[in-house]
Amino acid sequence: MPGGAVAGDTVGPLLQVDRLSLVFGGLQVLTDVSLEVRPGERLAVIGPNGAGKTSLLNCINGFYHPRAGRILYRGRDITRLPPHEIARLGIGRTFQNIELFTGATVLQNLLLARHRHIRYGVLAAAFYYGRAEREEAAHRRRVEEVIDFLELEPVRHAVVGALPYGLRKRVELGRALATEPDLLLLDEPMAGMNVEEKQDMVRFIVDANELFGITLLLIEHDMGVVMDISHRIGVLDYGVLIAEGTPEAVRDDPRVVRAYLGEEVSA
Q1: How far apart are CA 81 and CA 227, in angstroms?
Q2: Distance from C-alpha of 97 to C-alpha of 250, rounded to nearest angstrom
Q3: Which of 24, 67, 138, 209 shows its CA 20 to 30 Å from the CA of 56?
């Protein structure tokens, strides 16, 4: 799995969102949002339902194209790139609603995620020799590492559609990790989980960051989890970034309290 800088390294941002605006018809979804993700950090984006959090991720990985602003990854403008090209650059993604091949096994789902790394041609694949054989062996080793890391060995040959919800969420994370991302976008990875499943998912997410150097941009509604694992937090409200900083600073920001509780709080 990839290595990377740790949070706090004095290097430029891995990802820059610069004055991003998104409009659907007459609905302003994001307004002038600017955000940086530093190499090796865990940055959470929070906000009430409908704040534009998932729309922000959809812009970053190319599902949506903003009306204004730009997105830079390692200094390269990726604002108008399609999702498959953005994935090739090293940006992975999990989804709020699980997007797996439910009729395939866990192993097959993870192997399919390796497609962006395939370099051999059709002829080599047809006869399965030389480069194709070597690459397939390397892909299989990488997938086995992910299976071992996420403790999926007991269900490796299980059909995904027959697995409990919490395990399917773990497989979704595994598929994203199998792409070997440098930046991983996590859209509510713990939604719908029980306490034990959340504890496991938190451990896997933190280990992916700390052991493998994967930078994380996380959307999550469980504020206890967000406060515990995030290096920094950005807060969206009606498509506007109203606060950004350490968990402690964001927790005490009166604008954030108003957004969540609807109360007037003196500054």
Answers
A1: 33
A2: 27
A3: 209
Neighbour count for residue 128 (Cβ, 10 Å) = 10
Strands 240-245 and 232-237: antiparallel
| Residues 37, 182 contacting (CB under 8 angstroms) | no
Say what the alpha-carbon torsion angle 93, 94, 100, 106 is, to the nearest 10 degrees: 90
Secondary structure in 3-state letters for 174-212: HHHHHCCCCEEEEECCCCCCCHHHHHHHHHHHHHHHHHH
| Per-residue model confidence as pLDDT tens digits over 131-156 | 656 676 777 888 999 999 999 999 99
Query: Which 3 state secondary structure label does DSSP give 228?
Result: helix
Distance of CA 105 to the CA centre of its chain: 22
pLDDT at 4: 45
- pLDDT tens sequence across 11-48: 689 999 999 999 998 899 999 999 999 999 999 999 98
Structure tokens at 81: 């790139």
User: Which pTM does this prediction carry?
Assistant: 0.85
The secondary element (H helix, E strand) that includes residue 41 is none
- DSSP-derived letter for residue 6 is P
Q: Which domains does the chain have, with CATH numbers?
A: 15-102+181-261 (3.40.50.300)
